[in-house]
Amino acid sequence: MATPATPEPTVFVIFGAGGDLAWRKLIPALYNLFLDRWLPEKFLILGQGHRQKRDDEFNQHLRQGVDKFSRRGQTDDEKWRLFSSHLSFITCELDDSQAYGQLAKRLASQDKEWQARANRIFYLAVPPPLVGVITRELARTRLHLERQRSRLVVEKPFGSDLASARELNLTMAAAFDESQVFRIDHYLGKETVQNILAFRFANTLFEPVWNRRYIDHVQITVAEQVGVENRGNYYEKSGALRDMIQNHLLQILCLMAMEPPISFNADEVRNKKVEVLRAIRPILPEEVHRFAVRGQYGGGWMGSQQVPGYRGEPKVAPDSPVETFAAVKLLVDNWRWQGVPFYLRTGKRLQARISEVSIQFQPVPHQSFPASAVLDWRPNRLIIAIQPEEGILLRFEAKYPGPAMRLSPVIMQFYYREAFRTIPPEAYETLLLDVMRGDATLFMRSDQDEAAWAAIAPVLETWENIRPTDFPNYQAGTWGPEAADLLVAQDGRSWVMPTFLQCQEDLAVCRVTMAPAS
């Protein structure tokens, strides 16, 4: 994460460019980077796909996606004309060897036209089985040789378990050097997730208490209101544990628990993350039930809309054992975090769309106030809100106004939208720009990927061997199965209500810098 600089001339090759990811995320992100003048003057976005498209059809299709999904809304005719002049589409089968020879010629021709050796970014927006095929073909046509110019971007899932992740990493390593591979997790591009590093390591106020002596436990929640929508085929092979916890939530845990890096060199930061993952206490197969809970949503109501259960969704088996909710308790066995539990939960069709981290501090060692003063006393809590709001909130105790001594919890809060009065870039904008610059700080390395799979492997294996007998076990519109409450209750704790929801209950309270918590 060095000082921002405009990238060198770049050719952006998107394999699977006719698919949903390019339409919803990649092209809107590149268009916004173009508007903000972050793209180089010489750039080309070259789409590769099996669907027959002319350049004008391709451009029109992509413009519809930008109009719908860009944070800027509808495109301007002239600006889109300028941007789309850098778009081109090549119809090919992605397992056709001849297509890669043609691609190599096109890239060489582009270098000659620009009179510059452009960076080449190969973005694999394709199903996992095609990753190995494309990687091998790129190597066969020698498009991988220049380490400083050729980069491979791979979307999750990075394998489906530890064994397949290792196999995939070996396949990529046979062609590309690890420094050329960018495993992209869009969660790491979110402003608030990146801000965890700034919050922890740029402020002397918090880091001294960021340890087991002062912190009681940490909760990480990523809740979704949507169901699986039209992704039944994918989700039947994935589930909540693979889809969310193995990558998104474990990445957040790493940022919360890592030691201070010596510098913000990409490998230094990633080394610290790997140390955290390797310090996670292994879960014994016979103890999985004490450390992990799974659930599957049944039918219910989301607001005024009645929705089906997971087994009633399109392309889902009527007796599917796949979990749509997962919660795990992890312990990090090192000097800083020994004995501090990290509770992670995620699910679909939950009560609200919320992503946040809650850090619960230890209670004060001695309560000197009279009992009548502390009827509503609560431990200090720090909340890092990721979505739908982005910000940081701190709950502490203050004297309630009046002649009597009575304490009340209050909230001090910071919101990006209020403090900076600017629209933050979308996660893909940040990550794509980092790829073009060659900055791998926010991307997963192979050892990090495998360590994350190893952390949840016992849970995956146990769940696959023991079929659930109580699915569906939570109703759409709730906070998940009762077993998730028992997971934290066995430690004498409970899940916290997301703070943003508490603030929404009283907007007047939520709009001041410090106000009584609801």
Supply the key terms.
alpha/beta; 36% helix; six-stranded parallel β-sheet; Rossmann fold; 17 helices; Dihydrodipicolinate Reductase, domain 2; nine-stranded mixed β-sheet; 518 residues
In short:
The protein is an alpha/beta fold. It is built from 17 helices and 19 strands.
Would you give an account of this structure?
With 518 residues, the protein is an alpha/beta fold. The protein has 2 domains: 10-155, NAD(P)-binding Rossmann-like Domain (Rossmann fold, 3-Layer(aba) Sandwich), CATH 3.40.50.720; 189-516, 2-Layer Sandwich (Dihydrodipicolinate Reductase, domain 2), CATH 3.30.360.10. It has helices at 20-35, 55-69, 77-84, 97-114, 129-140, 162-173, 191-201, 232-235, 240-257, 266-279, 288-291, 416-419, 427-437, 446-465, 482-489, 499-504, 507-510, and strands at 10-15, 43-49, 87-91, 119-124, 150-155, 181-184, 215-223, 292-295, 297-298, 300-302, 305-307, 325-331, 341-347, 354-361, 381-387, 391-399, 407-415, 474-475, 514-516. The strands form 4 sheets. The chain has a 9-stranded mixed β-sheet, with helices on both faces. Strands 3-2-1-4-5-6 form a 6-stranded parallel β-sheet, with helices on both faces. A two-stranded parallel ribbon has the order 9-18. The chain starts with 9 loop residues before the first strand and ends with a strand.
